[in-house]
Amino acid sequence: MNIPAELKYSKDHEWVRVEGNVAIVGITDHAQSELGDIVFVDINTLGETVAQEAVFGTIEAVKTVSDLFMPVGGKVLEVNTALADDPSAVNKDPYGAGWLVRVEMADAKQLDGLLTSQQYGATIA
Known about the structure:
Helix content is about 20%, strand content about 35%. It has about 120 residues and is an alpha+beta fold. The chain has a single domain, classed as CATH 2.40.50.100. Strands 1-2-3-9-8-5 form a six-stranded antiparallel sheet. A hairpin with a 4-residue loop joins strand 1 and strand 2. The longest helix has 8 residues, at about 115-125. The termini are close together.
């Protein structure tokens, strides 16, 4: 299972990559493998401020629809529009081309409550 050490993780299987005051958010390799073939990503919170742990969209696989939970609160600056044409990018490259949103963090201290790669790995073991 791919769990990059430089990222932070939520208990809800989202990852966060920090670039300054912006958090890039996606779902983990574990989450995409549990969901199976992803067929649709629905994120309609562009421009909105979303609280930590609030739902910011849904992700649909062949057999299920799952809520996406915001790992750090803030304003959604960008949604990965490429996923409209190729939602399977989340399966193929969850930590790269399959990213979901870019968020301007309201409080970077919220990152301290997220899991390290080792802690996340232990929760899914």
